Amino acid sequence: MEKIKEIKQNLKNILDPTSKKSFDETQAIKHVGIDKENNTVMLVIEVTEKNPEVVKEITREIAKVIKINMGFTGVKIDFVEKKKEKSGPKTILIASGKGGVGKSTVTANLAYALMRLNKNVAVIDADVYGANMPKILGGMDHQLVGNKDGKIYPFVKDKIQMVSTEYLVEKNQALLLRGPMLNKVLKLFFEDTLWNGEIDYFLVDLPPGTGDIMLDMRTFTKDPKLLLITTPQSNASHIAIKAGYASKKLGQELIGVIENMSYYEIDGKKHFIFGQGGGQEVADELNVELLGQIPIVPSESSIYSESENAGIIYLSLANKIMKLV
Ligand SMILES: Nc1ncnc2c1ncn2[C@@H]1O[C@H](COP(=O)(O)OP(=O)(O)OP(=O)(O)O)[C@@H](O)[C@H]1O
Ligand SMILES: [Mg+2]
Fold first, then answer.
1. Which one, of 258, 261, 271, 269, lies nearest residue 296 by Cα?
2. Atom 3 in ligand 1: which residue has the minimum CA distance?
3. How many angstroms does the Cα of residue 130 sit away from the middle of ligand 2?
């Protein structure tokens, strides 16, 4: 163990020739192992760009340290290339198949978690007929204001920006839209909203099912990623699987599954009120990761604070999602 620490310490000032940053700064050392029998060190090194020159230069520098300075007989290095970060805003669609499993609650809490991680977040309530984001995030009395060019300003709460059809209709009125009008509303949200600053993440709260709005996402979003929400019950998971396949057909990349209302915790003991396994089943069937399990939270507020268990789970989820999209 001590030897491994020593190796890391001795390698930390080697430079990645592309970024000109040290291994320490780029966290380039991904793994260190020692084959005692052959007195050989095994390394996994992450580089900004993997090309023959980079490999040669780093291998030479590492060999100097490991063989000459530290006296090992040999060193084996696996080079992996750093995933390139795509620039520009990222769009995450939140879908479920079945209604009422917690899409809107998950969307809102993810928005908060990303905001707490200093990201600029916009929420699009694309559940045009059953909009309830304003119930969760607030601003029920807000009315969307447009400028003379027909652009609208989003509602803002705690730095999270949001648009919803709830803001387009009189209180307690439903929006009765068909094809072309529905398209106009989505255009207003996706193309004619004056967002404040550069948006890092657009979170799109989809309606249940795999209807028109999910299809329309092809027109309005570029390279969207999909998050599937399910509860542990099989009546939710089997529809989530269908929604997952539908999104694959539409070319939307599924990044993972979140199981909501997974358990109820009392005195540190988990009670699986709605059964177990739905989230894992969806993830396995669609070949993606089960990113997290959210407990049942008996709370008046649908937004969980940073200090409560569910809020902490959302922070870790947001961290995972940021790496995936
Ligand atoms: N983890 C949870 N613990 C307790 N209650 C929850 C949890 N998640 C969601 N709820 C509650 O369940 C109900 C449904 O949640 P939500 O509206 O987020 O689901 P939805 O999938 O968006 O529904 P719809 O399909 O109608 O859009 C809400 O009353 C919400 O407060
Ligand atoms: Mg909803």
1. 261
2. 296
3. 7
Cα–ligand 1 centroid distance for 91 (angstroms): 22
Q: 201-205 and 160-163: which strand pairing?
A: unpaired
* For helices 212-220 and 234-249, angle between their N-to-C axes, nearest 10 degrees: 40
* pLDDT surpasses 60 at 84: yes
pLDDT of residue 157: 95
Residues with CB under 6 A from ligand 1: 96, 99-105, 127, 130, 132, 208, 260-261, 294, 296-297, 302
pLDDT digits (tens, 9 = 90+) for 90-122: 999 999 988 999 999 999 999 999 999 999 999
Residue with CA at minimum distance from ligand 1 atom 10: 102
Domains, in order of start, for the chain: 2-81 (3.30.300.130), 90-324 (3.40.50.300)
Rounded CA-CA distance 222/88 in Å is 11
Q: How confident is the model at residue 175 (pLDDT cuts 50, 70, 90)?
A: low
**Ligand number, closest to the Cα atom of 274:** 1
Distance 171 CA to ligand 2 centre (A): 18
Determine the residue of 105, 109, 309 to mutate for testing ligand 1's pocket, defined as the one with the most ligand atoms within 8 A of the Cβ atom: 105
CA 125 to chain centre: 17
Residue 167 Cα, ligand 1 centroid: separation in angstroms? Answer: 21
Res 318: pLDDT: 97
Which residues are bridge partners to 257 per DSSP? 228, 290
Read off the tokens for 16.
């990645």
Indicate the residue type of 264: Y
Tens digit of each residue's pLDDT (9 = 90 or more) over 203-215: 999 998 877 788 7
Q: What is the 106 CA–ligand 1 centroid distance (Å)?
A: 8
d(Cα 141, Cα 174) in Å, to the nearest integer?
15
Task: Please tell me the distance from the alpha carbon of residue 29 to that of residue 36, in angstroms, as a whole number.
Answer: 20
